[in-house]
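Comment thread on ticket #2218

A.B. wrote:
> Attaching the input chain for the structure job we discussed in standup.
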Amino acid sequence: MPTKPTPPSHSAPVAPVGTGAAVGRARKVAVVGISLSDCGRVDEATPYALHAQAARRALADSGLGRDVIDGIASAGLGTLAPIEVAEYLGLRPRWVDSTSVGGATWEVMATHAADAIAAGRANAVLLVYGSTARADIKAGRRTSNLSFGARGPLQFEVPYGHSLISKYAMAARRHMHEYGTTLEQLASVAVQARANAATNPDAMYRTPITVDEVLGGPMIADPFTKLHCCIRSDGGCAVLLAAEEYVADCASTPVWVLGTGEHVSHTTMSQWQDFTVSPAAVSGRLAFERAGVGPGDVDVAQLYDAFTYMTLVTLEDLGFCAKGEGGAFVEKGRLLRDGELPTNTDGGGLSAQHPGMRGLFLLVEAVRQLRGEAGDGRQVRKAGGRLPEVAVASGTGGWFCSSGTVVLGRG
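C.D. wrote:
> Ran it. Output below, let me know if you need it in another format.
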């Protein structure tokens, strides 16, 4: 593996648009700013305030002025997202994206934003998210819901009480049936996530847990007990992507977008051909092919983990192990910060934060690790103390309905 991955060039010619668009080639794209808002238990802030807080912090992290932002991507808030968020932030973007595909939203949006910047349609795109999901339930402003809706294709499942979590649980049971995956192996995913969270000051839960504690918890949807499921938190984050010519003016170390991929699978469970294969099998392959690297080149992985099974099957589908071998792969401590494949190094949605569509948090943590900014006890190091060079962030949406995968490299 090269010591410094080179951002891929693109052959498609583009016309100059705005500042710095190059004629005859597409531009390279870097992550130049990242940040979290206040996270965990945030009882007083509104979702809009968390958006603004995260955006200000990410812009400060980049060292750029707000006038460079000419694109915004946001989903999940407002009647006309992302227009309301842009107005709240005082932005008048010429490029917007409101794609909403569940937890994969942010990796899919990053794909669209990187393509737009590379083609010269935007110069700097802000991806921003904020949610008070935990506080809203505590305050009675919202309640838990059984399903996402009862119209369209979902009308054939909702009458039978087929909730989101039960769909994931059913898929997990199928994997157990097909490949002999055990409850203990699934539980080890939660144990390792909590171990990674232990050194993350931003993590909501940091106390170590054991496999027995995971298995002995209250049943939510067979085979998932409570600790197999993500936490519910408040919080937000932001990521600023910019064209290569802005990098010299940035205060932060650039992290290059090497390759991306997106894919959708199904919405009705009867149309899902194989419960043991997620759409990451396609989005991951595309992202690696476009990046010119493979799973063996990845130093750190950030994977959507609303449930333990999601981590396991995504590892398989991205090619870190063969189909059906995910259980054996995760049970050997490979996901720990000092393991063979450090995964969800902030503690993931199982222990750190999960305010809803968590995919943007994956990108923030991947960038932190590549920059070497994760902090004492959490920073991943390669042999000789070297920083990681390649990271992958893969988000999953719905009930394995969608996937977006982004491969990042340190510059």
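A.B. wrote:
> Thanks. Noting for the ticket: The two ends are 14 Å apart (CA to CA).
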